[in-house]
Design brief:
Ubiquitin-like (UB roll); DNA polymerase, domain 1; 2 domains; five-stranded mixed beta sheet; 5 helices; Isoquinoline 1-oxidoreductase subunit alpha
């Protein structure tokens, strides 16, 4: 079936079977590989993208559910004020260890900061819960979100 998909500000026509996860369309059809496959059951957060500005797990978001919606991936974050601040904070604080989960972590952090510009440590932990990091950089991730909030406040 043919679906019109608006991804990172551009309209794409894609052919995909109903029930195809958005993740596979993004990675395999549109060749944007920043969004990662982690678990396939929406438990790890590696596949997080924004759907109409809200973080969602693309491994469990089906292509037929995103027609005419705006999908944003990590590849577009440097052009977003909040996304750029989060990426700057990540680099300043050397948040990343292996990096595999980080696109999902960043997408979730951006969603949080757009909703709550100055979250407490507890609010960060609550919002980021469910984004797994096998390297356990959770303290650096929390510090990165706090630093991004400071950058945005300046």
């Amino acid at each position: 079936m043919s679906i019109t998909l608006k991804l990172n500000g551009k309209t794409h026509e894609v052919d995909a079977e109903p029930g195809t996860p958005l993740l596979w369309v993004i990675r395999d059809e549109l060749k944007l590989t920043g969004t990662k496959f982690g678990c396939g059951v929406a438990s790890c957060g590696a596949c997080t993208v924004h759907l109409n500005g809200e973080p969602v797990r693309s491994c469990q978001t089906f292509i037929e559910d995103v027609e005419d919606a705006e999908v944003t991936t990590i590849e577009k974050m440097e052009e977003d004020k909040v996304g750029a601040a989060v990426q700057q904070a990540w680099m300043e604080l050397d948040v990343v260890q292996c990096g595999y989960c980080q696109s999902g972590q960043i997408m979730n952090a951006v969603g949080l900061l757009k909703e709550n510009a100055k979250p407490s440590a507890e609010e960060i932990d609550e919002a980021m819960y469910g984004n797994a990091c096998r390297c356990a950089t959770y303290q650096r991730i929390r510090a990165g979100v706090q630093r991004a909030a400071e950058i945005l406040e300046a």
